[in-house]
Specification:
The protein is of the alpha+beta class. The protein has a domain of about 110 residues: Rieske [2Fe-2S] iron-sulphur domain (Rieske Iron-sulfur Protein). It is about 30% helix and about 20% strand. The strands form four sheets. The protein has a six-stranded antiparallel β-sheet with strand order 11-16-15-14-13-12, sandwiched between helices. The longest helix is centred in the last third of the chain and has 27 residues. The C terminus is likely disordered.
Length: about 425
């Protein structure tokens, strides 16, 4: 990281008003974007894919994050591994398509081949002194939480077990390791990645922008929020009693501001995120038998939010492309034995979130266009309804300041510190 960029970012964060949006450079500046990629996307646990996407030994997926490319695969012991998608000969990418199946990974350039544990299996014409043991694929840390695959590029990839132990009880009853992805939507949004996350973390905009979604959920997703209407608070209490009897966790996690899980009921007697509120799949996830389980809302910063229901799940992955461009991938999952046109209809399954995602894309892109202009000034977050966005920017700012403080030449005292 360049010293002038470190000093500029540190100064901007140190002087900004607490609980206001970030200054313009954080949404448009290429140098600050490169710093973020190092501080957040090279050092945090990132949601990469679902374990059910590599169900068999030898199945693999490619995930590209900034300059990095990663191979996720299931090895001969059935474990999921991750490796840099870089040949140890002269650095060519090995896997060039999005997914596949292989007994060995073979580099297309000079045909060096690798076993599923990453060890170098075979080369040609490298001479008698060449030692294959020194040239295995470079591993990437992997963590699995109830079917969600997370990766971390850092040499010190700690903290995953505390995260896993806290969120897994919410997710395990839904059996996502025995699910399958039946539809994937990819959107390239012309907006900074933080605007995509900020938009997701609040529902201030929902009433005016998401008609398909708002007949299912409320604007407020904290059971303790004083703005929740009495009838919805009573519904939460009734469903909490039901879920306690079923042994299903539902209260907010409180172990970290980087992640959270909570189970909340739908409104108006709805059982699923469909246009009519009825289940999208007759075959429920896992071994569940009750359709009225609301949704587990599962967040992991910096790049994922998810809705896990009784009948299906919708998982979201956010990956930055540039300072003003972001790839948003949404996947819909059902039980692996569910049959299309018999147990589920693909259009019914996807139409609510397909519409919502496009609406959010337009909102984020319009936000980006406004921020690019010379008239942009940071503004305050609403205490009543933008707490999620406020908390995200608090987390972002703390992470940035903690990393930059030892490196910055100017030791400006941040106004926000632990706010």
């Amino acid at each position: 990281m360049r010293q002038d960029v470190i000093d500029r970012a540190y100064a901007l964060l140190g002087q900004r008003r607490p609980d206001w949006s970030l200054d313009q450079p954080f949404y448009v500046d290429r140098d600050l974007f490169e710093m973020e990629m190092d501080l957040f996307f090279n050092r945090q646990w990132l949601f990469a894919a679902m374990s059910c996407e590599v169900p068999e030994i030898g199945d693999w997926l490619r995930v590209d994050i900034g300059r990095e490319s990663v191979i996720l695969l299931r090895d001969k012991a059935g474990a999921i591994r991750a490796f840099h998608n870089t040949c140890r000969h002269r650095g060519s990418r090995i896997c060039t398509t999005e997914k596949g199946h292989a007994n060995r990974l073979v580099c297309p350039y000079h045909q060096w081949s690798y076993e599923l544990d990453g060890s170098l299996a075979r080369t040609r014409l490298m001479g008698p002194d060449f030692d294959r043991q020194d040239f295995g694929l470079v591993p990437v840390s992997v963590g699995i939480a109830a079917g969600f695959i997370f990766i971390n590029f850092s040499a010190d990839a700690s903290g995953f077990e505390a995260f896993r132990s806290e969120v897994e009880p919410y997710l395990l009853p839904h059996g996502l390791e025995d699910a399958k992805v039946v539809h994937t939507q990819t959107l390239v949004e012309q907006a900074n990645w933080k605007l995509v996350i900020e938009n997701n973390r609040e529902c201030y905009h929902c009433a005016g922008s998401h008609p398909e979604l708002m007949h299912i959920i409320t604007e407020f997703d904290d059971p303790d929020d004083p703005n929740i209407k009495p009838e919805y608070k009573a519904l939460i209490a009734r469903k909490a009693a039901d879920w306690d009897r079923l042994g299903l966790p539902h209260a907010h996690t409180h172990g970290s501001d980087r992640y959270r899980a909570v189970r909340l009921p739908f409104t108006g007697g709805m059982h699923s995120m469909t246009m009519d509120g009825k289940p999208a799949s007759r075959k429920l996830l896992g071994t569940l038998s009750d359709t009225d389980l609301g949704s587990v809302r599962f967040l992991n910063l910096p790049n994922s939010w998810n809705h896990v229901l009784a009948d299906h799940a919708i998982v979201f992955r956010v990956l930055p492309i540039s300072a003003e461009e972001t790839l948003v991938t949404t996947k819909w999952l059902v039980h692996k034995d569910a049959r299309e046109n018999e147990d589920y209809d693909l259009q019914r399954l996807t139409e609510v979130w397909a519409a919502t995602n496009d609406q959010d894309r337009i909102l984020a892109e319009t936000n980006q266009l406004g921020i690019r202009g010379s008239g942009y000034r940071s503004g305050p977050y609403s205490e009543a309804i933008e707490a999620g966005t406020r908390d995200f920017i608090r987390w972002y700012s703390r992470e940035m300041m903690a990393t930059l403080a030892p490196l910055a030449h100017s030791k400006t005292s941040p106004q926000e510190n632990a706010a």
